[in-house]
Task: inverse folding
């Protein structure tokens, strides 16, 4: 959607986005059985570049060409792809690792599961709805996970790690996160 592209391009022009690799990616990326990765909503490329330095070939998809331009050409193993994620379909059984950090698009959930090769690993971490209902009303609820939603959405995978916790954001106040690491079962 054009409005989303404009909004995200403006955000990347005006704000300094997180530069540190997500800790969950740093901790669990090595579990992937191969070296083909997808970074969903790649933003400024912090996780895609980390994975490329670890030997992965990464398809880094995002709606913002401004965000993608921040890392395009910095590593030959990263392929930035400008795409509206509301219309993007993840190819079946293409990836050994799929990373989805701080982005919720429930339409993609089946593709996140099916896009993994057997033995492939999904690393997913995003915001939980604020515990204060008035704070949740101020923001778009669709962009937040509900308690245990992430876990229940990926029970067909072998869950290796799951947690919901309060976390310090990079340069922000604390926030509630749900974190999942799961493996696609061999033969399924």
Result:
């Amino acid at each position: 959607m054009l409005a989303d592209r404009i909004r995200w391009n403006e955000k990347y022009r005006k704000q300094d986005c997180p530069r540190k690799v997500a800790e969950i990616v740093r901790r669990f990326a090595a579990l992937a059985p191969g070296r083909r990765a997808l970074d969903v909503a790649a933003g400024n490329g912090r996780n895609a570049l980390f994975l490329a330095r670890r030997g992965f070939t990464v398809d880094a998809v995002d709606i913002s060409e401004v965000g993608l331009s921040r890392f395009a050409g910095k590593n030959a193993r990263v392929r930035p792809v400008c795409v509206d994620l509301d219309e993007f379909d993840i190819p079946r059984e293409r990836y050994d690792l799929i990373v989805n950090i701080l982005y919720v698009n429930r339409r993609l959930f089946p593709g996140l599961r099916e896009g993994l090769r057997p033995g492939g690993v999904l690393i997913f971490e995003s915001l939980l709805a604020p515990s204060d209902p008035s704070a949740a009303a101020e923001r778009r609820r669709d962009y937040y996970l509900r308690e245990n939603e992430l876990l229940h959405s990926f029970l067909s995978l072998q869950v290796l790690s799951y947690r919901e916790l309060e976390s310090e954001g990079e340069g922000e106040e604390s926030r509630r996160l749900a974190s999942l690491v799961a493996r696609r079962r061999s033969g399924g």
